[in-house]
Structure formats: C-alpha cells, structure tokens
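[job 0412] stage=fold_complex status=start
inputs:
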Amino acid sequence: MAKIIVDVMLKPEILDPQGQAVGAALPRLGFTFAKSVRQGKRFEIEVEGEPTPAQLAEVAKAAETLLANPVIETFTVRVEK
Amino acid sequence: MKVGVVTFPGSLDDRDAARAVRAAGGQAISLWHGDEDLQSVDAVILPGGFSYGDYLRCGAISRFAPVMTSIIERAKTGMPLLGICNGFQILCESHLLPGALTRNKDLHFLCTPQRIAIENTNTAWTSNFEGGQEIVIPLKNGEGSFQCDDKTLTQLESEGQIVARYVGKNPNGSRNLIAGISNAKGNIVGLMPHPEHAIDSLTGPTADGLAFFTSALSSMVK
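[job 0412] stage=fold_complex status=done
writing structure:
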C-alpha cells in the first residue's frame, strides 16, 4: 500500500490571515525564528500497490477539481515511500 | 412567479430567504440538495449557512450536490440566481462567478448591520434599487473576504460587475470593498451581506433587503 500526498497552499499573492495569526503567536511563545508563516492543507490518500503514472494524473485531476481551488490555491502531488 | 430556495445539509437561512420571497409577492419553493428536479421554478436562491459544515472550503462540496447540476445548467441560459453568503461562496466554487471568498482579514466572525452601496442596478436582483443607493443589511460571516487576481478585478470594475460595495471601513479585507458581484449577463448575483434578514423593521435592522427579491420578481415579469 502506498500513500499519495497532496499539499495545497494559498497562492503567494492571496492574504493568509490564519498563517499570519500563527506567525504572530510564535514570538509570544519565545520562538523567534520565523520571518513569516503560511498555512496550508495536506491530504493523505492511501492506494493499493505502487501508484501508476495514470493514477497520479487522476489524483492531480481530483486535486484540481475538488481538493484545491485553483482560483486561490496551488497544489503538489507526490508519493510517500 | 416561483422562486426555489435550496436547502443543503447545514443551510441556515433558507427559511428567511423563502420568507423574503413571499414578502416580495412570489411563491417560495423548497429545493433539496440531493434532488436534481428544480420543480419548474423561475429563479433560484442559494441561502446562507454552513453547507456540508464548510468542510474542505466553504461551498466546495455543495458545488457538486445533485441540485447544482440543474442550477448551473439553467443559470448559464439566463435563469436568475442569487447566492447569499454561503450561497455566494458556492457560486464562486462553481465558477459561475469569478474570484473566491477567504477568511476575514482579522479572523473574526462578523455579525453586524452593514452599510453597502448598490452600484449596478442592471442585474436581475437589483433593478428596483437606484444607482448608488446606500442601504443597511446584516453582514454575518467568517469567510467573506473577496479575493481575485488583478486581471479579474480590472474586468469586474470595467464591466460594471460590482453589484454592491461596503461603505466606510472595510469589514473583512475584501478587494476594492466588494460586497457583491454579478456575472457579465447580470442574471447571477453573489452577495456577502444578507438581504433576506432585512425585509421588515420588526425582524431586521431595516427593510432595505426586500428590493433584491422584488427586483427578481419584476425582472421575470418583463
């Protein structure tokens, strides 16, 4: 069984108030390393066997249709070993 | 005139929307998200609420509900379609309207009477307003910040597709103070504030919202 990972992030030009709130909370807790924070979503999709290129293309299609909104978000598809 | 009001799992404002239709003199027909049959309605309202719990993104799952297949098809051929709040989010997710609604800039859920200016009175839902008319109706949302790319924004501005704009301080970070937009044809309108909660002074801050519903009824008579 393999796991296909789809990461979804807001496009850089889209305001991310949630990421900003996290970024503002870090220094209050003493974590001073972050210049900025952006928050996204991660989908873990289990499939039987090793994913084929056709399967990955299908996942990308699903990501474009449902998992991400291409108007404001970008996504990447990869296989986790 | 029959106006359908869709109920999705998690819709909140379907009853108020139906009440507004009746107050405007129309017949309100309840439509169910799981049923493709639009029961020969002349117009449709997608009400506010938290359809499908706002899971994934607001409106993202509702967009694929069976009823939406028929609604998208009819709206593309000119049927008046109004999306309020969550309904607006569904219209954007359906790509019937451009752009997207994102988290309010300050992350707060807003619930307040809001002054807006009606800028375009050539849509199916705003013809009974005067251009530039300022009204006060409730604004209540967590994800009402209208975002789009520069090209889309320029197009919305130049084609007069901005139906309503917030007056005064920007409540949620929407680009160019956008409170509502329409498609190029003007039959599809998305609004973040809630006209259905302001149809009489007993239950709303004003009765300013009623004209959205009377507009649709008069546009269908024409």
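[job 0412] summary: The interface with chain A takes residues 56-57, 60, 64, 92-93, 98-100, 102-107, 145, 147-149, 173 of chain B (CB under 8 Å).
[job 0412] exit 0
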